[in-house]
Each structure stands twice: as structure tokens, then as C-alpha cells.
Write a structure and sequence with these properties.
single chain; 8 helices; 7 strands; 42% helix; 257 residues; globular; seven-stranded parallel beta sheet; alpha/beta
Length: 257
Amino acid sequence: IIKNSMGLLDGKTAIVTGAARGIGKAIALKFAAEGANIAFTDLVIDVNAEKTRVELEAMGVKAKGYASNAANFEDTAKVVEEIHKDFGRIDILVNNAGITRDGLMMRMSEQQWDMVINVNLNGEYYMASEFARYLKANNKKGSIVNTASMSGHIVNWPQEQASYNASKAAVMQMTKSLAVEYCHDDIRVNSISPGYMRTELCVFVDQDWQKRWMDLTPYGRYGEPSELCGAVIYLLSESASFTSGADIVIDGCYTCV
């Protein structure tokens, strides 16, 4: 990634949740390349998170990681306050933290179901609502991109993941609802729906599953996390000033067939 390739986000501060690795990290690096300072969250600030911070700061921007449980409202409110104190301003939010717990519904425990819904849906709601409150209190406009999934549009197979699919479909409906609620406050809310991406979530699972996924994807390959960044940048930019409540599917044509 080339620093300041277009300078689209010069001087802005972005929150990217779940950014110590994978999709969140790729987005954070792209934002830094476009001039944004990065506040990123993860469940713990471990070696991976520290490595991400070093990589971001090497690009000439301010970066800091924050330990935060996405499924805990008090954690979320506290971290937004800390970010404002540390950076002085917050302009954009990418809600990316997410998990999956695969398994047949008849064998899934209540705890497993709750864990997926709490992180994937409640976590995005907590951060989006807290960020919107921050913007309104400071008389600022802003933009939010939530990470949904093609799994909210279709049922993935052969893995059984009703909880994940339901959570991501709910994220898309929440995105539309918040877009309508916030439009008069000059806050736009959109989402992206990635397909199978080359991240730890996919590449370390059953090889037969991976072969099936690629057979069902017309492009015949994983998407790279960096291939999501163009859509995110667009949705956050002034070029999308009349775009809110939208979902962009980025899945190598998986949902087309």
C-alpha cells in the first residue's frame, strides 16, 4: 500500500474495530495510506495488535490500539471516550469485529448462540450508536460502514452456521434502519458484504470445505482483504454523499449463481 495514494482521508481519525489482523487490519492500513489516523480495537492488545500499530505508525500517521469487548456496551462507551481524548476528533467508523461458531442448531448451546449474536450484531449496534451520540454531541457529521457478509444474503454450505448467517442478515437490516434514523443528523450508515476472504477465519478450516467454497465461487479463489478497501473508501467519502442504507456485496460472484 502506497502512502497517500490519493490523500482521501487526510487529517481524519478512523475507528476500525477488530483490526489487529485480517479484514480490519487491511482496512486500517488502507486508511493510513489515505492519510487517516487510526484508532483500532480488539478483544486484547496482543503481539498482533502491537505489530499492526507499528505498521500503521510507519506510514506516518498516529495509531493506537484499545482493548475492548465489542459485546459489552460499557467497554464501547469507554473506548469511544478514550479515543476522543487521545485523538481530539473522530470522523469515521468501520464496524468490523466479528466471530463465528459453526454447528447444527440442534446441538448449539445457548451460550454459543448468544456469543455470536452479542459480538456480531449487538457489538456493531453498540459502537454505531455510541459513535452517533459522539457526533451529535459535537455537532459533527460522519460516516459508518458496518461489516455484514454474503452470509446475510444466502445460506453458506457445507458448514452449519445459522447463528452467523442470522447475525449478518440482522446487521444489514440494522444498517438500513440506522441510516434512516440518522439521515437528518448528517450521519450516513452503509455496509459491505464480503464473500470468502483469505483470512484466518477461512484458510485454517477443513480442506474439503475450502474446495467446495472455491467450486461455488465463479472467480474460483479467495478474495484478498485489500479488495474490500475500495468499497469502504467509497462509502466513507463525499462521493457517496447521497448513499446511505446500502450494502455492497464483494464476493467474487458467489451470490450471483
